[in-house]
Specification:
Oligomer: single chain
Number of helices: 3
Number of strands: 3
Strand order of the largest sheet: 1-2-3
Order of helices and strands: HEEHEH
Radius of gyration: 15 Å
Strand content: 5-15%
Shape: elongated
Helix content: 25-40%
Distance between the termini: 23 Å
Structural class: alpha+beta
Length: 64
């Protein structure tokens, strides 16, 4: 029996990025608002992207 294809979850597709190597990256949370109390180093570090953990990768690889 053939395996059914899943539809792409559009909101997830807009948030996550897939690299050519297959790893999935996302923006670090906590930098949109209420940044007045954070140090410049904290805000600078939150501008970068981070890779998904292995457990999250397993959940999201079929959704995208």
């Amino acid at each position: 029996m053939a395996k059914n294809k899943l539809k792409t979850h559009k909101a997830t597709k807009k948030v996550l990025n897939i690299r050519q190597s297959g790893s999935i990256t996302k923006q670090v949370a906590g930098n949109n608002h209420q940044t007045g109390g954070k140090t410049p180093a904290q805000k600078r570090n939150k501008r970068s992207k981070t890779e998904l953990s292995n457990s999250d990768y397993k959940r999201f690889k079929n959704v995208i």
